[in-house]
Structure formats: C-alpha cells, structure tokens
Amino acid sequence: MGFEIRVLILVTVAVLVVCLPSVAFAAQGTATFYTPPYVPSSCYGNQNNGVMIAAASDAIWGNRAACGRSYRVRCTGATNQGVPQPCKGTSVVVKIVDYCPPGCRGTIDLSQEAFAAIANPDAGKIQIEYTQ
Question: Where are its TM segments located (predicted)?
C-alpha cells in the first residue's frame, strides 16, 4: 500500500475511535403516566415546572440525583396490555421533578401530557427508549 493510503486509513480509524464514545446510549424500560395536579413534587415542592415532566423510579432516581435531569423519551412498542400499537413515532424531552415510589409500574412515570405526545394514553404502559 502506498504511504498516502496508509495515512488515510490511520486518520479514518482515529476519527472513528474519537467519535464512537460520543454516540448516545439509549436505555430501555417502560413508561406509565400520572395525572394533575403535578405539585407539590419531591424535587421542587410547590414550584410549577410545566407539564413536560416526569417522576423517576428507583431505576434512575439515585437518591434524588435525578432531580432536574432531562430525558428524551421515545415509545418503542406496546406492553402486554392496552393498545397493540400505541406509539406515535415521536419523542419528548421531560424534566424529572418527582419520585415514583416502590411499586411504580414504569421506569419513568410521565405526565399525562408527555405520555400523550408519544403514545396513545389508552395503552396505559408502553415500552420506551430514553437518553439523558
């Protein structure tokens, strides 16, 4: 191989090695929803944080470390209950403002408005991918 081709290959490999770690990892879980009133919340007391919010289950709560984090949530499919094809093909960004206590039925408990933006609320519970 010529010198130029070897340099090009090395540069290409170096770029790939640098870029690959920056690819976002999407975790998988389930989402449910809760209805208003959304205040008070575990993270912000009586402060109103709008409606694109969520409560974190123990899977991401981290002893309040999740408070204020934003997650992009996308519906990936139905669970064994509810609507067979609930997903709308969109995603939503939510802010963690509350805690979903033990027994929580989902990884993330979305506000009713956030859930409705990505899935049919009649489903009740959906499969999701989420990234911080």
Answer: none
Domain membership flag for residue 115 = yes
Assign residue 82 the CATH number of its domain: 2.40.40.10
Q: What is the Cα–Cα distance from 65 to 30, expressed in whole angstroms?
A: 20
Dump strand ranges (E) for the chain: 27-34, 53-56, 70-78, 91-99, 108-111, 126-131
* Apex 93 CA angle, 130 and 115, nearest 5: 80
Does residue 98 contact residue 78 with C-beta atoms inside 8 Å?
no
Which residues are bridge partners to 95 per DSSP? 53, 70
Residue 16 within any structural domain of the chain: no
Number of domains into which the chain is organized: 1
What tens-digit pLDDT sequence spans the chain (132 residues)?
A: 554 544 334 334 333 333 344 446 889 999 999 999 999 999 999 999 999 999 999 999 999 999 999 999 999 999 977 789 999 999 999 999 999 988 889 999 999 999 999 999 999 999 999 999
